[in-house]
Design brief:
There is one protein chain. It contains 7 helices and 2 strands. A two-stranded antiparallel sheet has the order 1-2. 55% of the residues lie in helices and 5% in strands. α2 (14-39) packs across α4.
């Protein structure tokens, strides 16, 4: 079964279709960016450094990070049976970075972009928890839904991504509410 057939089958379920339609506006801008770049013939060029990263990291560091993140997600998704490409994922991740404006998409915290491409496994083994704690605000790429069949990413901190894991956004928010209520915080709905 190819991507189009899988998507068609999934969207034949009314619940999946409703969730897909609800999320559509969230993915409109990344698609528009990709289409504009392709129309302008810019899709083969390196990605421009988002303005909030100017003076924070070099364009080369950003491009290397982008390629590594896309490659990691492509490997994971191909193991899960999805058809995807590095170019498609680099574009989608870049669009998610631009949309994030340098902040965690779930918590609104400013991310520490100086940390990209600095994590070292050897140092982690020797420094253990203390070393890893210093990377809490390391920007990471989250698949919005673990079972997504399209490139749907958000940028968040390593800490947030680790806590969310493969949960849907709704499941993650429900867990956060349970944690807060258990700690005797009053949780109001976003409408209040």
């Amino acid at each position: 079964m190819n991507h189009s057939e899988l998507k068609e089958k999934a969207l034949s379920d009314p619940n999946v279709k409703a969730a897909y339609d609800e999320m559509a506006p969230e993915f409109l801008l990344p698609r528009q960016i990709l289409k504009a770049k392709q129309t302008a013939g810019l899709s083969k060029l390196k990605h421009s450094l988002p303005p909030f990263l100017d003076g924070v990291v070099s364009p080369e560091t950003y491009e290397r990070w982008l390629k590594r993140k896309a490659a990691a997600h492509v490997r994971r998704d191909r193991r899960r049976g999805h058809t995807c490409s590095g170019a498609e994922y680099r574009e989608a991740i870049h669009a998610a970075v631009v949309i994030s404006d340098g902040k965690d998409s779930y918590t609104g915290e400013s991310l520490d972009w100086h940390l990209i491409s600095t994590y070292r496994n050897e140092d982690s083994k020797s420094g253990r928890h203390a070393y890893k704690a210093g990377f809490a605000l390391l920007p990471t790429v989250d698949h919005v839904a673990a079972d997504a069949t399209e490139a749907s990413f958000k940028i968040c901190s390593w800490r947030t991504n680790d806590a969310k894991n493969d949960m849907s956004i709704d499941a993650f928010q429900e867990l956060c509410i349970k944690v807060l209520k258990h700690a005797n915080f009053q949780v109001l709905s976003s409408g209040n």
